[in-house]
Input
Amino acid sequence: MSKGRLITFEGTEGCGKSTQVRLLTERLKSLGHRVRNLREPGGTPIGEEIRHTLKHSHNNAAMTAEAELLLMNASRAQLVREIIRPALAEGEIIICDRFYDSTTAYQGFGRELDLAHVKAVIDFAVGETKPDLTLFLHVPAEVSAERLRSRQATMPFVRDRIEESDQKFFERVAHGFGVIAAQEPQRVKFINGNQQLDVVCARIWEQVEQVLPRVGRW
Ligand code: T5A
Output
């Protein structure tokens, strides 16, 4: 039995990850692959409670950057052991909406925590479990902000602590993703997310095809 694949999507807010995760999942399933979608923070019952604490809880206003780093990775440590490793061992393709590059970009570059500490925490959370492919969807800051505004207009009562951060924070996050993509070009593929949906989808597929296991050889 061959190993599955872990494919992660990364990028700034509203870059189109969730949309592309859905489209890629449908395509892979139609080809006969066993596919599982996950998101971070979250993806397990424990992780979803942590997600609520991080994003929506009324009690999270005073959260420190250090606590944020550890909670993101508590959720991740659970997800890796409860779901990702067993599913990979069964040969599934896992598509994860954000993974540890988000921690480097948001808590490392965005919150300006020491990058060596951030890396040490990530390494403890994931161990040997690393993505086979990471798709970094890039959109300009104004596109990201506009997509967020439109979404928030449809959900005016849902508070999101991270989205309340200032513009400088998001500029540092975007810079962080650029640095990560430049450091690991073999794993992290840059995709221009500011194009028609079907064009973005096609660019993603060109990358995904290269890491897929053959159907029927599980
Ligand atoms: N976080 C996460 C950390 O700080 N550290 C970590 O370690 C981790 C794992 C997660 C938050 O947690 C932070 C980052 C985040 O702040 P979330 O709710 O999961 O929060 O939010 P995001 O991951 O940012 O996802 P979003 O829902 O905000 O954006 P997506 O998924 O990138 O975008 P999507 O697909 O929902 O699209 C947004 C809008 O754009 C449209 C869509 O229809 C939608 O309306 N759209 C397009 N429009 C035009 N052209 C295209 N090509 C389009 N693609 C999508």
Notes: Residues 11, 13-19, 39-41, 72, 97-98, 102-103, 106-107, 147, 150-151, 162, 193, 197, 200 surround T5A (CB under 6 Å). Strands lie at 5-11, 35-39, 93-97, 133-138, 188-192.
